[in-house]
Amino acid sequence: MKLTRAEQLTHTGANLQVRFSRVILSSEGYSTVTLFKEFVLPRLVQWVVVIVIGVTITFMIPRLSPVNPVDQALGRMTTFQTMNPEATQALRETFLDLYGLEGNIFDQYLNFWRRLLVGDLGPSFTSFPTPVMQIIGNSVGWTIGLLGISTFVSWLLGLILGSLAGYFSNHWWSQLLEKILITVYPIPYYILAFVLLMIFTYYLPLFPLVGGARGTPGFTWEYIGSILYFGFLPALSLIIGAVAFRFIMSKALTTSEKSSDYVQYAELAALPKRKILFSYVTRNTMLPQVTDLALSLGALFEGALITEVVFGYPGLGYTLFNAVNSADYNVIMGITLLSIVGIATASLLVDLSYPLFDPRVRYR
Amino acid sequence: MDAIRDLFRFSPSFRYGAIIVTLVFALVIISFFSPYEPDDRRAVARNEPPSLQFILGTTSQGQDVFWMLTFALRNTLLVAGLAVLIGRGVGVLLGMVSGYIGGTVDRLLSSLVDSVIVIPRLPLLILIASIMRGQMSILTLGLLIGLLDWAIPSKRYRSQVLSLREREFTYTSVFSGMSVFKIVTQAHLPFLIPFLLADIVSGFLFAIGLEVTLSILGLSDLDTQTIGTQIYWGNYYQALLTNRVWVLAAPIGISILVVTGFYLTSVGLSSYLDPRTRLGRLEVKSKVNVPETEPEVTTTDGVTP
Amino acid sequence: MVRKLVFLLLLVLLVAPTTFGFAQEPQGLPVTVPREQMFVLDQIFRYGVAGNYNMWAPGAVTPHRHALMSETFWYRDQETGERIYGLASSDPIYNDDYTQMNVDLRDNIYWSDGVQFTADDVVFTVETLMATPTLTESGWGAQFNQFVDSVEKTGDFGVQFNLGTENPRFHTLFETRWNGVYIMPKHIYENIDDPTTYVDVNPIVLGNYVPIQFDPNGFWELFQRRADPERSVAGVITGNVGPEYVLSIFYGDSARKAIAMSRGELDTYFDADIEAFQTTLDTTPTARSWYTEFPWAYPNENDDRHFFFNYEFDPILQNRDVRWALALSINMVQLQTEYIGGVAKVSALPITPTAPLRTLYYDPLEDWLINLQIEIEPGTMYTPYDPTVPDQIAAWAESEGYTVPGTPREVFGSGWWNFAPDVAERLLLDNGFTRDGSGNWLKPDGQPWTLDVQAPPDENDAFRMATAAADMWSDFGIDVNLQGLERNSWDQNRFTGQYGLTTMWQSFALTDGDMWPQMQQLHSRYYIPNGEDARTSGGGWLNTTRLQDPQIDAFIDEMATLLPGSDESVELNREFLMYWTENMLSLPVIGFKKFVTWDERYWTGFPTSENPNYMPLYWFQAGKFAIQNLTAAPAS
Fold it and tell me: In the structure, what pLDDT confidence band is assigned to residue B293 with cuts at 50, 70 and 90?
């Protein structure tokens, strides 16, 4: 498609900065090897270090808790009936053995890494002997599905609405939208979720109270339909808050970009407004927004804890919540590990691709 | 004084925001004159709907919702304020130092910050709260939330400083012989202030949200009145199921009001202080209404708080 | 263009669930089984282990499964107090010195795969549990190893246990309060190498229901009735086939359960807080609890709520008069009506005033209670017991417009201590306490008297009762610090003794009247001082009070030697109760109540106050009979 002269100039203006960066980089004589050594490698090392530190901290903290799994297990047994104290003592020994909690903390730490490197996350304590991998496997799909879809939808929606509102900030609908979303944004998430729950399961009993799907898993219309049905309300609660945030961000970025020279030039050249918005302005605001998206996806594994507890959704967050309450160290470690790796990796990828996009930043 | 009059005239956001914030602080001051103690139960009749005598109704424990709300506001703002102070304070310091000095120091600090960021915060907070054996006070809560919230802001401030460092005016300052300290405080800080203000608002939002979440899960100090614990007790006595909506509507409404107020004020303030629009305003002062711009929220590698 | 696409996407997302999800009624249930054939019960927890029905391996508690699937020798029903014969056809037969126990077994019970239940299964179960300490369910293995020398069959339907030490309570391992030894199918488990890690997905059961579907995330399980219900224990006892399907599902907290029931997606829940229960009454006309009207709740679950003192926390609590002063400054009628809503039974003795225990203990001791006297000042006696407390509560109920469904003593429990703050004051003054200028109490050493009271809010009644006491003691002039602690914190504080008063619950007597098993931890051999963890001696419950009383030790030692249920045992128990009460060693307040609620929309035949055939506590192992008795409600 042939660009008009005006478009060409705008195009050039918008892309000038990128061209600049390539000129600068090549003029400073960066070869690929240097690039790797000075740029990529330190970040890879950082990635490893970050994961190790994060894992160690999460290893230590549950063990600082006075609530330990052996006592939990015994407590569960004696809640419902009184047991002979001698038998309780014998059982305590059995559990210590079974859970692999003998040895000092350093031994346990080494054992943990040893098992980890062969992909064994150990058995869960509360659900002994189910392996943690299996427990995570059961819930991770639900969390990824719910959060993945909500994140994408809300990111897209927020971006589009925000850019539109930012560019056409004098129109009535832009201001109305902003006022509505600004009112919604500060509502603490729990309240939003709880109110939605009450409205749509109690006052208007339209949606289910618990679960992820209905019937036996399979690729039938009924099963997939039930997944959408059961997931609708939790997804809605996530989307509302996230759209509000993304909208505000997008609008701010677009507004500040709007005052740039090349935009003023394009407007003077009477390019269609929508084209200016989506072909140029939005592209230049993409960088921080894509960063946000990447990091949100990385945080997927943290699970939407509150969402899942409020809506009874069988994902990672709910499992983690139960694990924290019952001092199930292995499950806590497994899920947190997944989350740490996810976020660290997303962060690494973002960091690596950063200078290719924004030449205004240079690394010493 | 001139400045404030200007603000009122030019910025509707600031106007509304300031009104709301004043109202909020008025409520906080009123709390010191409350006829009831915050832990008084059976002070008034139970479960009364809002009326002339009880503006916002009463709870199942026989407490006046309005007066309890003033206490809740006071305590929640205390917690949030403490959290923001610690979180943003540490964040700004670390970020600016790391960004400006660069090199190995920057690399080390960044690694530290990244290691802390990857740890999922809510589960960690829940874990710590349950370890604290019910020794939580609102001050400890504020401290805890602040300690969890400095990492991501520090990354943002660092990237802000990084981009400022490469601007022409910085080079100008360096070449004209300004000291590092002067550059940072006199040249860079004014650019950061709008961002800082907006960031403080998001810090408040985060802290309030976290306080509410923890209280609802029953993990904070349930015996002090905060917005979160008001909601917890409202739920505990099933306010929604029994159609006693006022018990929950009050803390929810107030939390929305507080944050909206702060947000609007900061929007107004930051666009006023933004050097770019300030220049624009100087040129066309008292002749034309300069359209408001939003603060430059360049979250270069920011993450949803 | 993009905008249009986004709009379309949203539309599709909105419409899809509407079309597919609404297809079935009621929409919220996770299984596609005809509703009228399925009984839906409240699962109480979300299960950590789903799909593993190996009931002996270490794991979390799984309430309803044992009712539906497992059998043991005897069932003790908490409502009627009777012993129901499960797998046993006789009572336990001991020899003279309690070192041998014989039991006759039923010959008409079959496993769900058609194999007959015989004594072989029992012998196999006991020997396997003894040989495999990692099969830790309920600590049976450890207890067998402590007492049993050998076990042998005395015929196809008879079994004999040879005990190493005398134990007149050995049979209680096979008799339920909560559960009894689950018998293993020998013909299945003898072929398993490692029973601890064996994952039993399609179990062979002795009960009436076989699991057919489960949620891998632990929210629900679906059971189906076996083809031959007349060859299961519950089928034989009740003579009813029971519902075709049983679904257990975990909805969440009280509010969600109430909502589910109003939608017709839950037929029974085990408890709810009073507000959620009221909502159920308002929104579900077919739902009811034990009583159709006030006081609704089931009051006969055998457990009791007290204030327990930590004797080492503040030495002032070791003074008996001080404890009595605390008792006399509580207005029991106000506590029970205003804070609890009038729906629980008052208990003056540390046992629940259920029908069986009233006959054994409350009624015979009533005279003693009425005549009990304590010394206020030297030479001045006072009778603290007020037998009219239930009558006063009944009067309040009637003034509120309720009808009391029985005599006041039946419905509201026993009498209690007078509300006499003036007498309490005299007791304190006589012990060197003084009041300061604003009327607050100062201890004899001049320090203000501060009481620390701890209760977990998620244990509803415990918390409300603590709130009531805190209010009343404050009015009396004591500086009360009431802490609502999250459950784990509350537990921790008890274990390490960081509390003044705590709201533990314990009924000192089992349904059959035996007290020793419930009180063992009071013996000073389990004493652990404050600051250390009370569980290290095998305790963790009653020994958290740090009580050291040689008289109590003597009682407990003697009780151990007597056959439970015998006259001497009951007599000794009564003496213990008298000793405990006149020394006010704990402050019992109310019995347990549960809003066990059943919805008659689809099923009827469950136990009620008009028809108290069994206990309605379906989550205990003996709850199987309540479930088995269900028949389809007439279609309306």
Answer: very low
Highest mean pLDDT among A84-98, B201-215, B230-244, C296-310: C296-310
Q: Which of A175, A244, A186 is nearest to B20 (CA)?
A: A186
Higher pLDDT, A356 or C609: C609
Is the pLDDT at B288 greater than 50? The verdict is: no
Kindly report the nearest CA distance between residue A252 and chain B, in angstroms.
6
- Euclidean distance between CA atoms C410 and C355, whole angstroms: 8
Structural domains for chain A: 140-328 (1.10.3720.10)
Of C623, C636, C627, C614, nearest in space to C80 by CA: C614
Q: What's the whole-model pTM score?
A: 0.81
Q: What is the DSSP letter of C346?
A: B
Bridge partners (DSSP) of residue C278 are: none
CB B256 to CB A259 under 8 A? Answer: no
Cβ–Cβ < 8 Å for C506, C349: no
β-sheet bridge partners, residue C588: C306
- Residues 6 or more apart from A174 whose CB is under 8 A from it? A164, A165, A166, A168
Q: Chain A closest CA to C246's CA: distance in Å? A: 15
- Which of A46, A183, A360 is opposite residue B111, by nearest beta carbon? A46
Please, which residues have CB within 8 angstroms of residue C481's CB and are 6 or more apart in sequence? C450, C451, C452, C453
Contact A205 C259 (CB under 8 A): yes
Closest CA to B190 of B267, B282, B275: B275
* Nearest chain A residue (CA) to C264: A205
User: In chain B, positions 229-248, which contact chain A (CB-CB < 8 Å)?
Assistant: 231, 235, 240-241
Residue-wise pLDDT tens digits, C552-570: 999 999 998 888 888 999 9
d(CA C376, CA C325): 10
Percentage, residues of chain C above pLDDT 90: 62
Q: How many CA atoms lie within 13 A of A354 on its CB side?
A: 25
Domains and their CATH numbers in chain C: 37-82+165-297+596-636 (3.40.190.10), 304-591 (3.10.105.10)
Structure tokens at A66: 């006075």
What DSSP assignment string belongs to A15-51?
Answer: HHHHHHHHHHHHHTT--HHHHIIIIIHHHHHHHHHHH
DSSP code of A209?
S
Name chain C's partners: 3 or more CB pairs within 8 A. A, B
Each residue's pLDDT tens digit, C173-206: 999 988 899 999 999 999 999 998 888 889 999 9
The reply to whether B280 touches chain A by the CB within 8 Å rule is: no
Helix (H, G, I), strand (E, B) or coil at C152: strand
Residue-wise pLDDT tens digits, C366-378: 999 999 999 998 8
Provide the 8-state DSSP code for C402. P
Mean pLDDT of chain C: 89
Contact (CB, 8 A) for B192 and B37: no
What ipTM is given for this predicted complex? 0.75
Pair C243, C36: CB distance under 8 Å? no
Q: Which residues sit opposite C604 in a β-bridge?
A: C631
Q: DSSP assignment, residue A325?
A: H
pLDDT at site C26: 54
Q: What is the pLDDT of residues A159-192, one digit of tens each?
A: 888 888 887 778 888 888 888 887 787 677 777 8
Q: For residues C469 and C465, give the distance between their C-alpha atoms in angstroms, rounded to a whole number.
A: 6
CA distances from residue C202 to B50, B289, C211, C387, C566 in whole angstroms, order as listed: 58, 78, 7, 56, 43
Could you give the CA distance from residue C102 to residue C162 in angstroms, rounded to a whole number? 9
A53 to chain C, closest Cα gap in Å? 28
Cross-chain residue pair C541–A221, CB shorter than 8 Å: no
